[in-house]
C-alpha cells in the first residue's frame, strides 16, 4: 500500500538525500510533502528542480510553506486539516545543527519546533510512524559506553546544539506513549562513502582545513595525544539505514544509534587525513591546551577554518553501542563501511571543492 510522507527541513541535504533514496529503492509513494520556511521558497523550488533533473518523478511531490515553531506548523487551517487525514510517515529533520549556535536560536527551532510537531502529530489520524532525527551526541559529556536505550544524564553538554537536541528527544520519548515513533541518532555524518560528496565541510573537515594550513610548515604536528574514538558515518549509510528502520515493524518505539561499530581513535583519523591530503606523516605533538588557547583568537580560527566548539569532540572518550541497530539491519545489505575504506574519497572530494566558499561554514 502506498504511503504519504511529510518531511521537515527541506531543502536541506538530509531531506533531499532521503527522497532520492526512496525513489531509488522504488518505495510505494502516494505523495511526499516537503515543508520549508517561507524565506527558503526560492531555494526549495531550485532544489526540487534539481531533483527532477536527477530523474526523480516530482509529480508526487509538493512543496509546503510553513514553520515548525508555529501552531499547525505554520500552515493554513484547511491545509493542516487535510494533511492530518493523509500523512502516514512524518520525518522530522528540521533543526539547527551548528555547534556554535546561540541557545535562544537552538531552543526555538530544536525544542519549541519539536514540541509543536508533537502537538500537530497527535491529531494525525493515519500516522504509522514518526521518525525523529536526533543525534548520538545527546550523550553530551558522558564518557564510556553509551547505549541506545539510554538518554537521561547529568554530565552536561559540550554546546547548545547537544543540549537542545537532548531536551527535544526527551519530548519525543514522552510522546511515545501516544505516537508511533522511531528515534534516529547518527554519529558525526561525513560524505558519501563512494563519491565523497557532502554539503558542507564541517565537523571532521575542520581537520582538513587545518592540515591544509599546517602543510606550509616543515612538518605536520599531532594535536594532543588523545585516544578518544571519533564516531564518523557516511551519509549514505545513515540514509539507507533510516529508511529501512522507519518502515521496519520492529522499529516501533525504538531508538537507534547509526554509528560506526568499529570507530577509529582521533589520532588515527588525523594521520589518515594527513597522509591523504598532504602525503605527510605527522611528527611531534602540539599539546591540546596550546591549540585550544590559539583557537580562542578569532583570526586564528578563521585563518585555520576551525570552529572552537569542534575540539571537544576529539577529546571526549565516548563509545556508542549500536547493538539494536545491527540486529535490526542483519537481514539487509546495509552496513556501516570501515572509515579507512573511504577516507580517500572524502579527501578527494574536499580537494576538488575546497575553494568553494559555499562549502565552508562560517567561523565566528
Describe the structure.
- Helix content is 38%, strand content 16%.
- It is of the alpha/beta class and 364 residues long.
- The chain has two domains: 214 residues, 3-Layer(aba) Sandwich (Rossmann fold), CATH 3.40.50; 115 residues, no CATH class.
- Strands 3-2-1-4-5-7-12 form a seven-stranded parallel sheet, with helices on both faces. Strands 6-15 form a two-stranded parallel sheet.
- Helix 1 packs across helix 7 and helix 4 packs parallel to helix 5.
- The radius of gyration is 20 Å and the shape is globular.
- The N and C termini lie far apart (49 Å).
Would you summarize the structure shown here?
It is built from twelve helices and 15 strands. It has helices spanning 13-24, 41-53, 77-86, 103-121, 160-175, 205-214, 235-246, 266-278, 288-294, 298-304, 323-328, 339-353; strands at 3-7, 29-36, 61-65, 89-92, 129-133, 144-146, 181-186, 188-190, 222-223, 229-230, 232-234, 254-258, 264-265, 285-286, 318-320. The strands form five sheets. The chain has a seven-stranded parallel β-sheet, with helices on both faces. A two-stranded parallel sheet has the order 6-15. Strands 8-11 form a two-stranded parallel ribbon.
